[in-house]
Structure formats: C-alpha cells, structure tokens
Amino acid sequence: MPYLADRTHALDAAELIARFGDDAGFEAAARADRYRDLGNHVNFCRWRQIERLIVLMSVNRAVGTVH
Known about the structure:
Blueprint: H1 7-20, H2 24-38, H3 41-58
C-alpha cells in the first residue's frame, strides 16, 4: 500500500490520470526518476508513492481487507 503524507498526493495522482490517462503511471515514474537523478530523495519517494497510488486506483477490485 502506498504511503500518503497528505491529500496532495491523491490530487497529484488524479491530475496525472486526467492529463495522461493510461500513461499516468509512466509519467509519475519518469518524475520520480528525474528527482532520483538530481539526488532529491524526498521528491523521488513522493513521486514513487504517487505512481503506486495510480496503479492502485486503476485496479477494478477491492485491494486489502474488506469488511
């Protein structure tokens, strides 16, 4: 499960999905890679978690425990 520090991660994921559609996960991964190359570990982790959230949002079934 992705770690979300605040709601802006969900907003960023929704924005990428709206702008890039099925390629939103690839865009988030590219942004994470860019920050890794710059040595910015904070934004690298942020975009990697957003990438995981996009993948989670694209699954058409419940993930994890359902009560």
